[in-house]
Specification:
Number of helices: 0
Strand content: 25-35%
Shape: elongated
Order of helices and strands: EEE
Strand order of the largest sheet: 1-2-3
Largest sheet: 3 strands, antiparallel
Distance between the termini: 40 Å
Radius of gyration: 20 Å
Length: 70
């Protein structure tokens, strides 16, 4: 059983709605497939970005490429 208890807000202040940010799913640049496998990564390159080496797992593709997340 899940009971939803709203968190208290200061008196006289309405709740603000949260912004929604949409991020598209990564896809293979060759075949546009979404089945990808990350096989190596650098979590922080010193500037807050991460670098990943990725391989497409679609049967006919197998393309390897890099993904930089800023």
């Amino acid at each position: 059983m899940i009971i939803d208890i709203p968190y208290p807000t200061p008196a006289g202040r309405p709740r603000r709605s949260l912004e929604t940010i949409t991020v598209e799913r990564m896809r293979c640049p060759r075949c546009n497939g979404a089945r990808l496998r990350k096989y190596r990564s650098i979590r922080d390159q010193g500037d807050g970005s991460s670098l990943s080496w990725v391989r497409c797992e679609e049967e006919a593709c197998g393309h390897r490429f890099r993904v930089v997340l800023e």
